[in-house]
Structures are given as C-alpha cells and as structure tokens.
C-alpha cells in the first residue's frame, strides 16, 4: 500500500500537510542570510548570577535526592542544569547541616550523595509543598529580558522573506502583501472566509517567515512560585551544532518560534496560570507559551465564552505588549505579551464583534476559495504527485455533475480529500490508481454526503 501523503503545495490556502516543507524553506532562507540565534542566555558563574538564593538550590537538591535515592554531584548538576561549582557550596552547606551524607566516590573529585534521616524529613516536607525537582528555575526578570532581546517587534518581514515562508505554495502577491503588513504591524489580524481554504494552515506558517529560533527557560520562578513554561506539546526543541561550541545557561532551551493553536475548547481559565494542587506547580497560560511566536484562535466565535469577553481579555495586552496573570497567592504579576495574534473564523468579523472592536484589530484579510482554473490545476498537480492517472474529461465530469448543478462552492481542500478517497478505493479493490467518472462518483458520495 502506498504510504505517500497527499500534499497540496499549490496555493497558500491549502490545509496543514504543507506546513513542514514551507517552514523548512523559510528556515533555509533565513539561515542563509542571517544568524538563526539572536540571543544566547549567558552561563552563570556564581549563585548571584543565577538569580536564585541558597535556599532555592538546597530545596531542589533535597527533593532530587528524595526522588532518586543516591545521585552523584555531577548527576545533580546535570538534572538541575547548573554548573557544578555553583552547586558545590550547596553540597557543603547541606553536609554541615547533616541533611546529606557522602555514600561513596564517583570519579575524580566527585561523590555520591544521599539523604540523612534529618534530610529525608525536610525533603519530604518540601515535596509536600511542591514536588518539582527538575531544572532550576529562571527568575521572571531574566525571562522578561530574554524575551525583549528576542522580540518579534525587533524583527521585520519583507516580501522576499514571506515568499520564502510559502515557497511550496502558489500565493497571490496581494495576499502576501496583506499578510506582511499585518505581521509587521504586530497587533493581530483576522483571517476570515469559508471553511476548507486553509486559514489555519496560513496561520501556522506565518510565524515561520521570521526564520529565527527562540530561547525560553524550562521553568520560571515568580515570587517563589514555579511556572512550567516549556511544554513539549507546544514547543519544538532544536539542537544546533553551534551550541556545542558555546557556553550558555542550560536552564534555557532553544525552540522554534512557537505557534500555539486553540479552538472552540478555549476557556477563560486557560488564559491564566493554572496551579496543579497535587504538585504545587503552575502551568503557563496559552499566551505565555506563545510568547515570541504566534497565538492562533481558530474557529473564533465558537468558543464557550462570548466573543466580547475573549476580546476584552486580549485587546489591552495586544496594544500594550504586556499582560497580567494571577498567582496562586492572589497577587497579579506583569509578564511579556510579545506575539502575533491571529483570529481565524468562517464567519464575517462584523457578525462577531462590534465596530469598536474591529477598529482595534487593524487587518481583516479574507481567504477566498479557488477559481475553476486554480481548482483544476491543483487537482492535476496532486494527482501527478501520487502517480494517479486522470482520464480525459474526468475533471470536467466532476465539475459539471457534482459542482455546477448544485452550486457547490469550490474549496482548496477538495482536490486533496477527493484524491485520498479515490486512492483508498483503488487500493482496497486492487485497481489501477486513476481518476475516472466511476471513482469520482464513489469519492463524492463518500466525502460530501449531504454537504
């Protein structure tokens, strides 16, 4: 059975299978013209430079030993992502306080540590308050400085960069220009139009035009509260050969500029810090995880909360470029709000919000369906890619029988989806892969039903 994916690299308005290749094009273009890393977090050389205090490190060491039992000094340093000389002072203090003891040696000038009875009691109390024992956190001030040094506001797009981001797609100059203006403005945009024309895919690809990577801390500390920022479900870590040649703060991780997509499931609670009562750790809000990239609110207007409530929550941070989040203590804290917000909807923007709101989102870009010529070209191009023969007149048959009589609108997703149906049918019945009037009728019956 063929394993090739039906990609649709013909127009900007094609769903997500093209995202990876287009992102690669943008990445190659950016890296050929400029450094992919604009900022590097400096490696701390002292406890003061970590932004933490003695108590912070001691607690992490104790909880790590509580979980692991016995760990070498080098192993503790690796798990906390800190230089061992900085931790050496913590080891000595904990030994003098009879919290830890040496179990044995571990290579040159290193030892294996374990908890004493007193250390076990203290570690258990700290673990009940907060179970986190991973990479040492980065203070909020250092995070804010890092985001400022990598801000999208310091990046600007040109027509050439945006073309590179969509190098696998056929994209009109008008649409490229509209997107570029909106992105450089940085205050958000509406993408609207009928479903199936690739608004979500456009949103995913836009941030790749910047072509740069982003450093973020794995965890940040805010007034003693820990917030887990790096999320493998939202962030894609990257490893560059250059990193092996430089010194940097290992508490930070290099990622691709993120694109966080939320849909109808978005709730007001997700726009704030969410404390896990069992672990004592807060999970970052969706907009905090999107810093330095893009936040895409898909299916805007279908969220559980009213659209006015959602816009009221986001409109001021969009304009001021900072947000306020609530800590578990009840205190509010200011955090960066440095991202492109994209509202993607199948509905008319004027049907969702009033004129005052629309004025504050300056760019409204309509993503339209294909012309007949574009639709035909797309179907032939995709069929060629999967080595599918098209009978003469088959595409005309599709249009004349299944589109024109019913007034069914053309969508950029239809050629890909119909070809997938045809391929599945031919493979199952062990027939040559071909677009014929018979396979078209079968695909249309399966795919459209009552649509």
Automatic annotation (TrEMBL):
List compositional bias (Polar residues) regions by residue number: 13-26
Which part of the chain is the AAA+ ATPase domain? 185-371
InterPro entries, from UniProt? AAA+_ATPase, P-loop_NTPase
Region of interest (Disordered), ranges: 1-51
State the name under which the record lists this protein: AAA+ ATPase domain-containing protein
Organism name = Bythopirellula polymerisocia
């Amino acid at each position: 059975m063929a394993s090739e994916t039906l990609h649709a690299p013909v127009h900007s308005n094609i769903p997500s299978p093209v995202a990876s290749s287009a992102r690669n094009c943008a990445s190659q273009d950016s890296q050929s013209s400029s450094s992919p890393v604009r900022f590097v977090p400096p490696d701390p050389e002292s406890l003061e430079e970590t932004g933490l205090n003695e108590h912070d490190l001691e607690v992490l060491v104790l909880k790590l030993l509580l979980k692991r039992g016995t760990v070498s000094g080098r192993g503790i340093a690796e798990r906390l992502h800190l230089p061992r000389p900085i931790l050496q002072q913590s080891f000595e203090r904990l030994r003098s306080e009879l919290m830890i003891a040496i179990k044995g040696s571990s290579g040159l000038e290193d030892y294996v540590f374990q908890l004493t009875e007193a250390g076990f009691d203290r570690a258990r109390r700290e673990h009940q308050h907060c179970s986190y024992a991973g990479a040492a956190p980065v203070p909020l001030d250092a995070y804010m400085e890092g985001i400022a040094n990598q801000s999208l506001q310091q990046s600007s797009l040109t027509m050439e960069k945006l073309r590179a981001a969509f190098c696998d797609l056929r994209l009109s100059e008008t649409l490229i220009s509209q997107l570029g203006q909106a992105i450089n403005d940085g205050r958000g945009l509406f993408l609207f139009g009928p479903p199936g024309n690739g608004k979500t895919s456009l949103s995913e690809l836009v941030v790749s035009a910047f072509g740069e990577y982003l450093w973020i801390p794995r965890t940040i500390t805010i007034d003693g509260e820990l917030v887990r920022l790096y999320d493998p479900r939202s962030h894609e870590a990257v490893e560059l050969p250059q990193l092996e040649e430089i010194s940097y703060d290992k508490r930070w991780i290099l990622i691709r500029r993120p694109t966080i997509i939320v849909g109808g499931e978005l709730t007001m609670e997700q726009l704030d810090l969410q404390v896990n009562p069992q672990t004592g750790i807060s999970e970052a809000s969706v907009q905090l995880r999107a810093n330095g990239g893009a936040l895409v609110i898909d299916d805007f207007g279908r969220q559980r909360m009213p659209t006015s409530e959602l816009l009221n929550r986001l409109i001021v941070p969009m304009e001021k470029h900072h947000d306020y989040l609530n800590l578990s203590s009840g205190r509010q804290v200011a955090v960066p709000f440095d991202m492109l917000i994209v509202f993607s909807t199948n509905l008319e923007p004027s049907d969702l919000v009033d004129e005052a709101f629309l004025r504050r989102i300056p760019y409204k870009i309509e993503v339209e369906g294909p012309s007949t010529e574009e639709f035909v070209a797309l179907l032939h191009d995709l069929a060629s890619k999967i080595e599918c023969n098209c009978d003469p007149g088959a595409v005309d048959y599709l249009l004349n029988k299944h589109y024109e009589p019913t007034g069914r609108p053309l969508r950029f997703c239809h050629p890909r989806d119909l070809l997938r149906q045809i391929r599945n049918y031919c493979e199952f019945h062990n027939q040559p892969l071909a677009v014929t009037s018979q396979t078209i009728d079968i695909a249309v019956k399966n795919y459209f039903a009552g649509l």
